[in-house]
Write a structure and sequence with these properties.
The chain has a single domain, classed as MetI-like (MetI-like fold), CATH 1.10.3720.10. About 80% of the residues lie in helices and about 0% in strands. It is built from eight helices and no strands. The longest helix is centred in the first third of the chain and has 47 residues. The mean pLDDT is about 85.
């Protein structure tokens, strides 16, 4: 055990610049994806709870598709499959050709956006209808009521779920290594291919992932208890 710990320290000292670059890529990719997913999920959640049946149907298709197909398949399609699509009249648009990082960003955003949409939708549905009636009686129209009155309350209710989704996103970000993004896991893989220290390097990568996910898990549990007390 002591020898293994020494090896962990040794590998960390030797390769910390590379590992930190991979760690930084994981953080940047995850934070950007979550930010975009919050915007996308917020719009979809509002549509999912709107009075328009066609819009609810279309937004439901998006949510069900991305929640019920593997993220890895979505990433592979965006990076390898999308550039090969030959559309009528327009052929193969240049914007179909994505770099590994952009494909990973788009894939993680679309996938996570479906989950944030459902989290925010549950928050919207849990807001008392009296809030909407009171806002409408004050002269606010439907859109203003949803954005300025209902949405802020729904966001507060949804925070524990959103924290869990962000934690899952940090873990899911490891899948972008399949399309060539050199994030934390891929960095550890690249190093162990040179020195064959597979177990220590994957252990270091696991510890670094824990530094991202454990604080979020703790925060999520505390937020859930706080929201439960508030109700």
């Amino acid at each position: 055990m002591i020898d293994f710990l020494r090896e962990l320290v040794n590998q960390s000292q030797l390769y910390y610049p590379e590992l930190l670059r991979g760690y930084r890529t994981t953080v940047i990719l995850s934070v950007l994806s979550f930010t975009l997913a919050m915007v996308l999920g917020g719009v979809v959640a509002l549509i999912r709870t709107s009075e328009s049946r066609p819009l609810r149907f279309l937004s439901g298709i998006y949510v069900e598709f991305f929640r019920n197909t593997p993220l890895l398949m979505q990433l592979v399609f965006l990076f390898f499959g999308l550039p090969k699509l030959n559309l009528p009249l327009i052929g193969r648009p240049d914007w179909f050709l994505l770099s590994p990082f952009k494909a990973g960003l788009v894939g993680l955003t679309l996938y996570t956006g479906a989950y944030t949409a459902e989290a925010l939708r549950s928050g919207l549905l849990s807001v008392d209808k009296g809030q909407t009636e009171a806002a409408r009686s004050l002269g606010l129209n439907y859109v203003q009521t949803r954005i300025y009155v209902v949405a802020p309350q729904a966001l507060r209710i949804s925070v524990p779920l959103l924290t869990s989704i962000l934690s899952a996103l940090f873990r899911n970000s490891a899948l972008v290594s399949a399309i060539g993004v050199t994030e934390l896991l891929q960095t550890a893989e690249n190093i162990q291919e040179r020195n064959f220290q597979t177990f220590p390097l994957l252990t270091i990568a696991g510890i670094l992932y824990l530094t991202l996910t454990l604080p979020l898990a703790y925060a999520s549990a505390r937020l859930e208890r706080r929201v439960a007390r508030a109700h």
